[in-house]
Design a protein that fits this description.
The chain is of the alpha+beta class and 657 residues long. 24% of the residues lie in helices and 31% in strands. The strands form seven sheets. Strands 5-4-8-2-1-15-19-17 form an eight-stranded mixed β-sheet. It has a six-stranded mixed β-sheet with strand order 18-21-22-23-25-24, with helices on both faces.
Length: 657
Amino acid sequence: MYKSIIRMFIKYTATLVLAICTTAVFAQDKLGYEPGKVFDPQFLNNPGNEYRSGNGVPGPMYWQNRANYNISCVLDTVKDEISGTVVITYTNNSPDELNYLWLQLDQNLFTNDSRGHMNTPIGGGRFGNVDFEGGDSIHSVSINEHGKTSAPEYVITDTRMQIRLKEPLKPKGDKTTLKIAFSFRIPQNGSDRMGITQTQNGKIYEIAQWYPRMEVYDDIIGWNTLPYLGAGEFYLEYGDFDYSVTVPSNLIVTGSGELQNPNEVLTSTEIDRLNKAKNSDSKVFIIPSDEIGKIATRPKNGGTLTWHYKTHQSRDVSWACSNAFIWDAARANLPDNKKALAQSFYPVEYAADSAWGRATEYLKYSLEFYSKTYFVFTYPVASNVAGLVNGMEYPGIIFCGMHLKKGGLFFVTTHEIGHNWFPMVVGSDERRYAWMDEGFNSFINIYAGENFNNEEYKRDQSMKRLTDIMTHPGDQPIMTYPDAIVVKDLSVLAYFKPATGLKLLREKIVGPQRFDYAFRNYINHWAFKHPVPQDFFRSMNDALGEDLGWFWKEWFYENWKLDQAIESVQYVNGDPKQGVDITIGNKEKMAMPVEVEIKEVGGKVGRVNLPVEVWQRADKWSFHYNSTDVITAVTIDPEHVLPDIDLTNNNWSAPTK
């Protein structure tokens, strides 16, 4: 009996809860605009601290750890395999004692039991792994702790490796040195981030995520150990890199940083051409098409050559090599009389001026534009490599699809090199917040495209087109893990929508002059550091002098829509010369400032700009306009700069008699 009563009670309670929830959901669906949810006083009001200040800049005790790398590797072109050794000097600048270290083994994505493989849809996908058994082989690990070298206990879990320390790494400056011997088979299609492609003159190798790398330990999460699944990119510590790549002597190698031993790997002719390119505004061929594969282009015939590169204050290094490369280069002119070398490597099949023949021009322009507009390019060399990878970025080197041409190649080039600002300089966590690199970068790409060669490749940035892209049903918010974003929506949520929001903020809400000052302020404060979204939001608010919590919340944390409408137009006392009272409505959950255009019968056109605060109390607002004649039309957002989903209710026309 008791059990029967309990079962009846549970059943009744479940039915009641279901009914309440159903009613609540139905009621919520019926609700339109809710001012309290947009203008939320609790949003972004957690206090700053000594590490991250309330004004969005690093606090007086901000810290981050550091990892310096010394790497040597050998490429086996018969087995398509890399073997090498990495020595990592790791500095614990945190206030915490560390009992273990975490490293990334990205190549473990390419095993048949990896989480990334298990997350790959049937039929494959851009970021997945299908029918390739690779992964890192760790041959040995040693560690020097406070002068004592030993073989530590370590555990590998998917794409992560934990090193368990015998002696804790002490806070505020203690160091340790790891030495790891590793090898792996190169995946032919490495999640569109690396791989091998065959051309008529030989293979092109694009090598990335190729050595064990330190995970980030920060003041927000501690150890950042999200697995590498493919879509979510990287979060890395800064440091100095010294690396050497040994390859067959007939291959040309380009990589992150600056070549240290040109006299050993280049001929005197190539060195002369390279020096000429460093002082030329137009491209100079270091290896032209008619010299591809010729013995005379190599300082020795047979055996191997070791290419030695260095780069400073970087978060990663990558490289590429081939015996099929055309190589050209030109000087990029940066602010403060600084220079950089822009260079491209591509096979002869795609060397036409409609394709890779202009790649260095695109790269040079992008380096100059972003350096002048945002922050000076920080590396001495930038390389653009044509190959299998459609578009991928690493410090000082980018991979772009060799089949690209014209505007397609321009935009992929300017996008991928743009990543040298976000996240190579402003070092955000791509594994969690794809929009902080892809979205920011897509935003600056808009202006690079508009300003290139008299708008040669200017794209349609009309809000009507972008609104259709951004507002299809079922969208997740921008603030979603990249690996959790529905694949078809990744380009919207990581790229287009964040970029469009920043463009809207700059051009419509606060104005270019104020926005640009605040944006550069954010870049300067967080260069070579690790900001999170709240740091960006606070930094912009503070430099702009605006509480933009309403905008950050609705654009980045929600998937709300905008629908502004004309509700009524009424003359005062029925007399047009006494003015007109206009009522507007906000029919969806998003709020935006309002611009209203009023046309009179005599041809007079007036504009009224209302701040977003008119929506703080309710979903309707009335204002008076001093008309002097009969009103013929009233239009909200006459230039269609807002993401309004229904333009049919944006217009009012005088009734015909």
